[in-house]
Design a protein that fits this description.
Bound molecules: 1,4-dihydronicotinamide adenine dinucleotide
Largest sheet: 10 strands, mixed
InterPro entries: Ald_DH/histidinol_DH, Ald_DH_C, Ald_DH_CS_GLU, Ald_DH_N, Aldehyde_DH, Aldehyde_DH_dom
Protein name: NADP-dependent aldehyde dehydrogenase
Mean pLDDT: 94
Radius of gyration: 28 Å
Number of strands: 32
Shape: globular
Family: Belongs to the aldehyde dehydrogenase family.
Pfam family, one: Aldedh
Distance between the termini: 44 Å
GO molecular function, one term: oxidoreductase activity, acting on the aldehyde or oxo group of donors, NAD or NADP as acceptor
Structural class: alpha/beta
Length: 800
């Protein structure tokens, strides 16, 4: 028997297993297999199929669950549909009571859920008990609050409807909570598919829904694999898909939902940098690495998997880190003294091994924690790979295991460059005692979450989600709620018994050649507008623009792929606009309005040539002016928030511009439509490539002179006329276009959304809805500004 002194010296103490009898009894009671949870009851799969669920740490079978078929998905969606209107018709307070009851019951079952999670997933009981499950309860409490406040805080919004939610295996119950709580608060109903490796806590949650009296059909859970998930994605009765998982599947889902009108949010992979500057508290940073990459065995989408260490402290820091890594205990996750548990499944273990072998083959040097790994189950020791090049496979690919790769940098600028050298953009962690350096680096990170002197902090009150190929949409807090809401006017329009809404009247089509007053002469050939200059189209051709009656009004440039590429390059190069002060941007917008006013008569007569009555034309120009004023006013007022999250932290939610955006304009209201889209986008600091209405482009080309005389830096607004569908596709495929707004022909949306899957840029449109551009509710507002920005949540140490 070792003495206390021996134990303190070796830190080699005996096992401290968590009791698992309650969960074992529950599993035994379901030995005949778990069904799906549909319409408030547990039902077997229609096909009768089942699949096994294993404990990854022991390699033992612990349950069998139903294999979801398309018919099961049908039944679940039908149940959710039946339940949706009554659920949404409850008062916010009534829904809050249900969410509160779920939170309370989860809290009462905390230990049970933690044990079940660990048996199913293999994560250390210490983590499921102290992190996952408390955050689950917190999420339901927080969203009970949003349900209560929904009517007062989101008065112009309605629930989306039936939501399909697909979640991964790394935080099974927590991801369920992140998806279900906001959806319920906002009045949606749900069909959720847990990951095939880890369905059990979702089924335990289904029992809790029953126990708390959640109305039947509000939450439905269908177990199954990727095929079941694909059936849910494809189901026409689903109004929104929320997905967390691999970028690869995210891309498939983007393509599968293209043109369907389904709302989509994607939370995908990452390869997040963990930057240690030479003035950092090194011991703190070492503990940070432990939490960044060895928490949950590195099976964390926002894991700090790329260590960037400043050259001067590199050796000292790695020596400390290796010492700390050596003390980590990997083993049976039900043991309370274990630091690193099991890898979720043999297939994941193989993937980790292959990638690590590749890292060695590429010249990386491997360091691993010692200690004996259990003989059964899937385990991989905490690992550090040094001597890694930023362009090597292990520095670029998400390993999703307990493996950090380490690189060095010399200057802060170089750190930023290496950190942003990734197709992902989920998170970043910054370690320095210098507040200027910390905040400056945070601002430069292309990432949706930034932790300063901290890492892997989560809270229901803060938004979470990525930039770039880490996906789009946010989960958590106010930002996350928007993912489960749509503007009420759109909902009203959709439910108006399929009736197409009457567009604002486009009056009196003039006859060809009819006298129209100040009609421009036919030889006026508009070029494109790129980088602040009029540019001849690459094709060398123009096309004839005709009035509705057929009369030729002039020529517009026939833009092509090359012109779009040039325009995107100009937009990408005009980054200074995003860094300009909001006041400066507002001034430029006011100046545009002023110049537009000075040329109002010219614009009016242009609209008249397109068949508008002079009064209607005057109204449109006046509305375009007012809209420009509105967004000039908003430029310095649509700003961020400070979320109250953890103690000794504040979380700054900063709306940031996307960068280069593509905008496809509508045909109706050719001037007002364009202005309604371009002004909010540039007010927020984006640079835009605009494709005007194909049939009425001259209102846009008339703007060139206005833009030229308004102090707008070259490249902030670029205008390419021509075949809209073709140009839209080029914009959608372009990797330097970070977001796309599509308000062209509804039929073109499917192609654009599918083409956007390349770099997973968000595509915003109102689907097939007909927008009244004159309406301040439909054609203007915070919804436009919100879609022109992505929120970066920066966690800053603050307070006692
Ligand atoms: P995955 O993306 O295949 O699985 C996530 C969920 O999507 C599961 O519920 C799965 O059944 C479902 N799914 C799979 N194919 C689908 C389809 N075609 N349509 C609809 N749903 C579908 O992730 P997987 O294969 O389990 O893990 C592979 C890699 O993905 C990991 O090594 C890791 O790199 C990454 N990953 C990232 C996660 C994150 O949180 N960002 C979570 C899980 C995995």
């Amino acid at each position: 028997m070792p003495s206390v002194r021996d134990v303190l010296n070796t830190m080699d103490y005996g096992p401290a297993p968590e009791a698992e009898t309650h969960v074992a009894d529950w599993l035994k009671a379901h030995a005949q297999g778990f069904g799906h949870f549909i319409g408030g009851a547990f039902v077997p799969s229609t096909g009768g199929g089942r699949f096994p669920v294993d404990n990854p740490a022991r390699g033992t079978r612990i349950a069998e669950v139903a294999a979801g078929t398309p018919a099961d998905i049908d039944a679940a969606v039908a149940a959710a549909r039946r339940a949706q209107a009554p659920w949404a018709a409850l008062s916010g307070h009534e829904r809050a009571r249900h969410l509160y009851a779920l939170a309370r019951t989860i809290q009462k079952r905390e230990r049970f859920l933690a044990v079940l999670e660990t048996l199913d997933n293999g994560k250390p009981i210490r983590e499921s008990r102290d992190i996952d499950v408390p955050l689950v309860a917190r999420h339901f409490y927080h969203h009970a609050g949003w349900a209560e406040m929904l009517e007062s805080e989101f008065p112009a919004y309605a629930p989306v409807g039936v939501c399909g939610q697909i979640i991964p295996w790394n935080f099974p119950l927590l991801m369920l909570a992140w998806k279900i709580a906001p959806a319920l608060a906002a009045g949606n109903t749900i069909v959720l598919k847990p990951a095939e490796f880890t369905p059990l806590t979702a089924l335990a949650f289904a029992e809790i829904c029953r126990e708390t009296g959640l109305p039947e059909g509000v939450v439905n859970i269908v177990t199954g694999d990727g095929e079941t998930g694909a059936a849910l994605v494809a189901h026409p009765g689903v109004d929104k898909i929320a997905f967390t998982g691999s970028t690869e599947v995210g891309r498939l889902i983007r393509r599968a939902t293209a043109g369907s009108g389904k709302k989509l949010s994607l939370e995908l992979g990452g390869k997040s940098p963990f930057i240690v500057f030479e003035d950092a508290d090194l011991d703190g940073a070492v503990e940070g690495v432990v939490d960044a990459i060895w928490f949950n065995g590195g099976q964390v989408c926002c894991a700090g998997s790329r260590l960037l260490v400043q050259e001067g402290i590199h050796e000292r820091f790695l020596a400390k880190l290796k010492r700390r890594m050596a003390g980590l205990v990997t083993g049976e996750p039900m043991d309370k003294s274990v630091d690193v548990g099991a890898i979720v499944a043999p297939v994941q273990l193989r993937r980790i091994r292959e990638l690590v072998a590749k890292g060695e083959a590429e010249g990386g040097v491997l360091h691993q924690a010692g200690g004996k790994l259990p003989e059964t189950g899937s385990f991989f020791p905490p690992t550090l790979i040094t001597e890694v090049e930023p362009a090597s496979t292990v520095a670029e690919v998400e390993i999703f295991g307990p493996v950090a790769v380490a690189m060095t940098f010399r200057t802060p600028a170089e750190a930023v460059q290496i950190a942003n050298h990734s197709r992902y953009g989920l998170a970043a962690s910054i370690w320095t005692e210098n507040v200027n350096l910390a905040l400056d680096t945070a601002a430069r990170m292309k990432a949706g979450v930034v932790w300063i002197n901290s890492t892997n902090l989560f809270d229901a009150g803060a938004g979470f989600g990525g930039y770039r190929e880490s996906g789009f949409g946010r989960e958590g807090g106010r930002e996350g709620l928007y993912e489960y809401l749509v503007p009420a006017w759109r909902k009203a329009q959709a439910s108006a018994s399929g009736e197409a809404r009457v567009a604002p009247p486009l009056v009196a089509v003039p006859e060809a050649g009819a006298s129209l007053g100040a009609v421009p002469t036919i030889d006026r050939t508009a070029k494109l507008y790129i980088g602040g200059r009029q540019a001849r189209p690459d094709s060398g051709y123009g096309y004839t623009v005709r009035a509705p009656g057929g009369a030729a009004l002039g020529q517009a440039g026939l833009g092509n792929r090359k012109d779009i590429r040039n325009a995107v390059e100009a937009a990408a190069g005009a980054g200074g606009w995003g860094g300009a002060s909001a006041h400066n941007r507002a001034q430029v917008l006011y100046y545009i309005a002023e110049n537009l006013a000075a040329r109002a008569a010219e614009f009016e007569s242009r609209l008249v040539t397109f068949g508008q009555e002079p009064d209607a034309a005057r109204r449109e120009v006046e509305a375009a002016l007012r809209r420009t004023f509105f967004y000039a006013a908003q430029a310095d007022k649509y700003d961020g928030r400070v979320h109250a999250t953890k103690t000794r932290h504040v979380t700054l939610a900063m709306p940031e511009p996307f960068g280069a955006m593509g905008i496809l304009c509508p045909d109706d209201a050719p001037l007002l439509g364009l202005v309604s889209l371009v002004m909010p986008a540039i007010a927020m600091g984006n640079r835009v490539v605009v494709v005007p209405s194909e049939s009425a482009p001259l209102a846009a080309t008339d703007l060139y002179q206005v833009l030229d005389t308004s102090d707008l830096p070259g490249g902030v607004v670029n205008i390419v006329t021509g075949p809209r569908a073709e140009l839209a596709k080029t914009l959608a495929e372009h990797h330097d276009v970070a977001a796309l707004w599509y308000f062209g022909e509804p039929a073109g949306l499917a192609g654009v959304e599918a083409a956007s899957a390349g770099n997973l840029k968000p595509v915003w449109s109102h689907g097939g809805a007909r927008i009244d551009w004159f309406s301040p509710v439909e054609g203007q507002g915070a919804e436009y500004l919100r879609n022109a920005t992505q929120v970066k949540n920066i966690w800053v140490p603050y307070g006692e």
